Amino acid sequence: MIPAPTLANAWERGASLAAPDRAASLLGELDPTCDVGAMPVGQCDALLFEFRRGLFGDVLDAVARCPNCADQVSLQLDLAALQPPIADPPGEIQVRTGGYRISCRLPRNADLSALSRLGADVALQDIVGRCLIEARSDDGSPITAHELPDDVALAVVEAMAEADPASHVLLNIGCPCGATWTDQLDVRTVLWTELGAWVGELLQDVHHLAIAYRWSERDILDLSPWRRAWYLQALGW
Ligand SMILES: [Zn+2]
Question: Ligand 1: distance of its center to the CA of 173 in Å?
């Protein structure tokens, strides 16, 4: 079990980063040997998925909006069943389509960070360009990612996603109105939001106990969750 101060510190340091980098940064905070930037997106997501299960359990209550009737659909997800495999993804993928041969690697966290800084106008060619090893037309001429037609760049991005299934955990959702659809579980947003709420509640507990007993933050955080709860209950919180 990760000590409460460690988790709170990891969350606080992550909060100072740009939003796309926050959840992934938790892995680096908790394991300094982990090179988060160089980690493929899906491998990182699979570890964050496992991390979420260890922290908060295998059940996730979620809601989705029906695209047909616009009602809110409540979901109770079994994360053990949805856990993507934590495996080494392929180092290189090759796509041959539309008169082009493209070799690229899978997107890494550092690529996500760089692409997020481009704002809303990220082109498919930007994604391919970050990961490109080599692209040639069928006559052997080298070309850049930004010279690829849209349909070819799309085929490359789709091949990347297919080679890295852990980067997109899909949910099959049904609504009482009869509609069914597929949505993606964003483990980074889920984990970051839940951990933020947990840290907020933890600091509220520290606040109450510090005022009542004049204990230091460190001493309060070093208490077991059971003892913190006991003292709070004794105070009527
Ligand atoms: Zn519906």
Answer: 10
